[in-house]
């Protein structure tokens, strides 16, 4: 998947669960604080909030790499 395709999924989705680099993440697009992303169990990291899909993809880091650079490795496990 491309960065633009992932941004569109985030823009149109509500709850997105995905795997990348052997980690599990959840994105919630409907929160009062903006677009929420956090790592799932067993690592349960502090949640981060972003104002747009592009900001999330450019600034959320997975192993020190912006998520937007890892889009071709993302596997969507649940999407609503």
Describe this structure in words.
The structure is a single chain. With 80 residues, the protein is α+β, with helices and mostly antiparallel strands. It is 21% helix and 41% strand. It has two helices and seven strands, in the order αββββαβββ. The strands form two sheets. The protein has a five-stranded antiparallel β-sheet. A two-stranded antiparallel sheet has the order 5-6. Strand 5 (61-62) and strand 6 (65-66) form a beta hairpin. The longest helix has 10 residues, at 3-12. The chain is globular and about 25 Å long. The two termini are 18 Å apart. The mean pLDDT is 95.
Terminal Cα span: 18 Å
* Total of helices: 2
Average pLDDT = 95
Q: Report the strand count.
A: 7
Specify the structural class: alpha+beta
Layout of helices and strands:
Elements lengths: L2 H10 L2 E6 L2 E9 L2 E6 L8 E3 L2 H7 L1 E2 L2 E2 L8 E5 L1
Antiparallel strand pairs: 1-2, 1-7, 2-3, 3-4, 5-6
Give me some keywords for this one.
7 strands; globular; five-stranded antiparallel beta sheet; 80 residues; single chain; 2 helices; alpha+beta
Quickly describe the structure:
The protein has two helices and seven strands, in the order H-E-E-E-E-H-E-E-E.
């Amino acid at each position: 998947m491309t960065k633009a395709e992932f941004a569109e999924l985030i823009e149109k989705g509500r709850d997105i669960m995905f795997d990348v680099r052997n980690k599990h993440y959840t994105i919630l697009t409907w929160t009062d604080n903006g677009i929420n992303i956090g790592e799932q169990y067993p690592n349960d990291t502090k949640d981060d909030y972003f104002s747009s899909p592009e900001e999330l993809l450019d600034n959320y880091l997975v192993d020190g790499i912006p998520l937007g650079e890892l889009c071709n490795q993302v596997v969507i496990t649940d999407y609503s």
